[in-house]
Each structure stands twice: as structure tokens, then as C-alpha cells.
Amino acid sequence: MKVVIMAGGYATRLWPITKTKAKPLLPMGKRRIIDIVYDKVKSFGTVVVSTNRRFEPDFRKWAEDKDVELFVEDSMSEEEKLGAVRALAEVAAYLDDEMLVVAGDNLFSFTLEGFVEFYREKGEPVTALYDVGDYELAKRYGVAELDGRRIVGFMEKPASPPSTLVGIGIYAFPRRVCGLLSEYVEGNAKADNIGDFMGWLCEREELYGYAFSGNWYDIGSPDSYIEAFKTFMEHSVAEVEVDRRAKIIEPVAIEEGVKIIGRSIVGPYAYIGRNCVIENSDVCDSVVFDNVILRRAKVWRSIVDEDCEIRNLDLSGSIIGAHAKIQRGE
């Protein structure tokens, strides 16, 4: 079995942060999103990460100490991307093997041993499902209609969901599905959503669903990123300078070279990148990238990209792009 981690998207809903950073490489404390995914799947077979030419150097750096092969699609922008199904079809044609496929921005607390065992038992395609427990919420996802454990219908973002069981970007495919992926993309314009392919597949093959319980996060928005961050981060503080008047509330992840000055409060649930200066400022439920200066600022449920300077300002539910300088008058 080959394991495919899909990491070729451009994450437009997290722009401007993801204009310069691949979403699977965003921090979850000291680790990255893809680190958590990789640890979940590496025992099942050779791991192949499908990404794009734009972020290829970043993934190559990430993969240096791992047993990972990169498969790089020839795209540099959202407009050029292949789409998830077409990208998977290209990987499948290259591998020509059975595959465990996992989205690279998909975080979950459960293990996959039972899922893979169920796939082995059936010998048929299997997709992971999660009960969101709400029909309105289900409208945002691909939704399965089941007869027992067999999926008899799969609809992408339906207006009237047949259930609250949604697909969560985890699939097990026998080798023959490699050819079916190619057949689908050759004759179908809907090559972006794997949910559309699953609907097509269940009309031609026995397709089964395997429902999970536990925590699952589809990291598609700043809120879902921060909620996942709060669940998966681990407390870690590097060698940093902390004023005796400052306070750190666990858990936090603070990188090297950080200065926390004055009556600052950092945490809980804060990531502070390298060489930041936090002066008389509060940061919680937030991600702050490298070389950021905060002076007399309050940052809550926000993402601040690298090389920013923010003074005399309260940020709540905000995304600040790199190199921004924002201040309110004294």
C-alpha cells in the first residue's frame, strides 16, 4: 500500500497567510499540520506527498529527515492548479498501487488502524465518515447516503442532505481505482472535489463508509485553524527573554530569540515565532509568526504573519498579512 498525503491546494480562505505558506506547513505549536498527519499514516506504507511547484522547496525542506517521496504538480497559482481529483489521478497513475489517501490539512484525534483493517476485510473502496450531527452544517460538506455500511449515494454540498455523515478526506482505494480516477477526469469537468468523484464511484463500484468519533478539524478557515491549534499544540518554550513582570500561561509554543517585556501576558494557546518582541501586550488563542513586534497590543483569536509591527491596537478575529505596520495614535 502507498500512502498519499494531498497537499497541493492554495488555501485561498486563509489568504494572505497562505499566499506565502502552504497550509499543511502552518504551525501546530512546534509541529506543523502535516507532521501530525504524517505521524498518523507513516506506518501503513511508503508516504508520497502530492504538492505543487510553488511550495515544492518548502516541502522538500520539511521532508529532509523523513522517509517521504514528493510528487509535484506543475502549477504555481490557484488559477493553474489541477484540482484535487485530477492531482490524485496523476499520482495514482504514477503509483499504480492500492492507496491510503489523506488530506494534508485534515486533523483528527483518532487512529486509522480500524479503518485500514475494514478496507482489507472488504477489498473495496472505503471512505472515512464523521457525524457532524446537524443537517445545516452537513450542507457544507460531501454527504453520504448509506444502506448499512455501503454508500449508495454521495453528494457534494447538497441542499437537502440525506444524512449528517460527511466525508473527511480519508480514503482507501484498491489498485483498480487508479484507472477509474483517470477515466473520471477524462470525461468529467468536476475535477476539483473528491466528493464528486465519490458520488460517481458509488454508482460503479461497491463503496463503503467507515464512521469515526473523536475530534476532527477541516482546516479551511482561521477559526477552524485556531480551534485545531488549541487541541493539538504541545507546550514548548525555547530559550527566550521574559521580563519578571510578564506572565506566560500554559500551553504556549514560543520559538528562540523572543523577548517578552513589561506587563505582557502570553497564553494560553499562543504560538510566538522566532525573534518576536512582545512588549506590554497580551496574546492568546493566536498564531504570531517570526519577527513580529507587538507594543501595547492585545491579540485574540488572530493570525499575524511575519515581519509585522503592531502598536496600540486590539486585534480580535483578524488575519494580518506579512510586513504590515499598523498603529493607533497614542
Automatic annotation (TrEMBL):
<dbReference type="InterPro" id="IPR029044">
    <property type="entry name" value="Nucleotide-diphossugar_trans"/>
</dbReference>
<dbReference type="GO" id="GO:0016740">
    <property type="term" value="F:transferase activity"/>
</dbReference>
<dbReference type="Pfam" id="PF00483">
    <property type="entry name" value="NTP_transferase"/>
</dbReference>
<protein>
    <submittedName>
        <fullName>Nucleotidyl transferase</fullName>
    </submittedName>
</protein>
<feature type="domain" description="Nucleotidyl transferase">
    <location>
        <begin position="2"/>
        <end position="231"/>
    </location>
</feature>
<keyword id="KW-0808">Transferase</keyword>
<dbReference type="InterPro" id="IPR005835">
    <property type="entry name" value="NTP_transferase_dom"/>
</dbReference>
